[in-house]
Amino acid sequence: MSSSAPQDPRPADGHRLWSVDEHLADVLGAVRPLEPIELQLLDAQGCVLVEDVTVPVALPPFDNSSMDGYAVRTADVHGASEEFPAVLTVVGDVAAGSGELPTVGPGEAARIMTGAPLPPGAEAVVPVEWTDGGTGGGAAAGMTPASAAPEQAGGEVRVHRAAEARAHVRARGSDVQAGDLALAAGTVLGPPQIALLAAIGRGTVRVRPRPRVVVLSTGSELVQPGEPLTAGTIYDSNSFALAAAARDAGAIAYRVGAVADDADTLRSTIEDQLIRADLLVTTGGVSVGAYDVVKEALSSVGSVGSSAAPGPGDGDADVEVDATRIDFRKLAMQPGKPQGFGTIGPDHTPLLALPGNPVSSYVSFELFVRPAIRTLMGLPESEVRRPSVRAVLKADKALGSPAGRRQFLRGKYDAESGTVSPVGGSGSHLIAALAHADSLMVVPEDVTSVEPGTELEVVLLG
To answer: What are phi and psi of 43, to 5 degrees?
Structure first.
């Protein structure tokens, strides 16, 4: 890497550039994990457990068969072979869920199904394929359904192979014992964890709920996909991208259709959405144009308590509301320089205002919104940010980067070779390139050129 001399990011007029780290710290400093609630198991999927869960009963709760076959005493099948089978009297059926069980005495066997409790007297299970299935013929391929041949719960069965004690028997408590820790607080509940909770009899569980994230894009030029384009219009991709990204982060996402460049309309929309939002994300309208309506709209609905020390926002474009502040900032990064952050409404709901260029908004989401969502979920700090690795740049030529800005370039990471290759250019409108990238290459603020073969930090998006 070639470096330029460190530059003071504060322009001559007194306005300053926030660093990426300063802005993220300010956002996370104002976000707290959501309060725990008790949820039904399926409603708790994707949520973070807030209490240790112990096992009330052993799993499995009784010795049971792992095969369809016959429950036997080992002495009765000792030395059994196809030429000299052990002939046993069948004393009944044992199905999964059976209550009253037949006792297996000397010279006896009971038909048993997978998951059924091992009956008294039995010491092992021989698979049905090791027997004639009670038909008097050769080796059985399976059991005749009980409804079709109830008489086969009696009669005789010929066993062609010996079985050791406990063969094909799942021992009581072989999965977990009563009193064991089933799941620790902080566990994210996925399908296997939900299955375990159900298996130990938990119908509800105490968790932090998945955050509800409302995403709205702004711009009179935006048309919804599926509708015809007219002169000067483009399709709204940002709200779809950010809603999908919010879901990927673990949130429940609500996408609001594009809002026109009208402050009253945007203000009304935001106020209407507060009832179902733990976090609001807007995209567009945060720069310095005449139609950047987010700043104007938020001036009447917002309140914010910046967690940064007094001074960092001095000179920034901000709005004073009830002795609090919504900050619209410029960050020392590319793409995504203009950003807004505050809390709004009576519940001080966090709001992050992202730029409108598609790549800028997505990169901003990954750097700032995703960590906020993961913090609301109550995840540990190690799981709040995307993982990053070091990789060697594989490119045909050096990559340029503006002095004083931390640049995030789209890349394709090859874990096997430990390399990363650029995808597309640096333009913040290049959606197609973003769709083919799986990582972001990070170029530090003091670096203006990155030569092929240079090691870079790479943020993994997948």
So the answer is: -70, -20
Length of the chain: 462
**DSSP class of 61:** S
Residue with tokens 């994990």, as numbered in its chain: 33
Kind of pairing between the strands at 124-127 and 69-72: antiparallel
Closest to 419 (Cα-Cα) out of 448, 459, 390, 450: 390
Does the structure show a pLDDT above 80 at 115? yes
- Other CB atoms within 10 A of residue 149 CB: 13
Predicted pLDDT at 325: 55
Question: pLDDT, tens digit, for every residue of 361-385?
Answer: 999 999 999 999 999 999 998 999 9
Distance CA 131, CA 136 (A): 9
More confidently predicted of 417 and 308: 417
Q: Give the helix, strand, coil percentages of the chain, each rounded to 5.
A: 20, 30, 50
Q: Name, in order, each residue with C-beta under 8 angstroms of 68's C-beta and a sequence gap of 6 or more.
A: 112, 113, 114, 127, 128, 142, 143
Q: What percent of the chain has pLDDT over 90?
A: 66
- Return the amino acid letter for 147: S
How many angstroms separate the CA atoms of 45 and 39, rounded?
Answer: 9
Residue 338 to residue 354: CA distance in whole angstroms: 7
The answer to whether 280 touches 343, Cβ cutoff 8 Å, is no
For 118-134, the DSSP string reads PPTT--EEEEGGGB-TT
- Measured in degrees and rounded to the nearest 5, phi and psi for residue 247 equal -65, -45
What is the C-alpha separation between 94 and 112, in angstroms, rounded? 5
Q: Which of 272, 271, 237, 189 is nearest to 365 (CA)?
A: 237
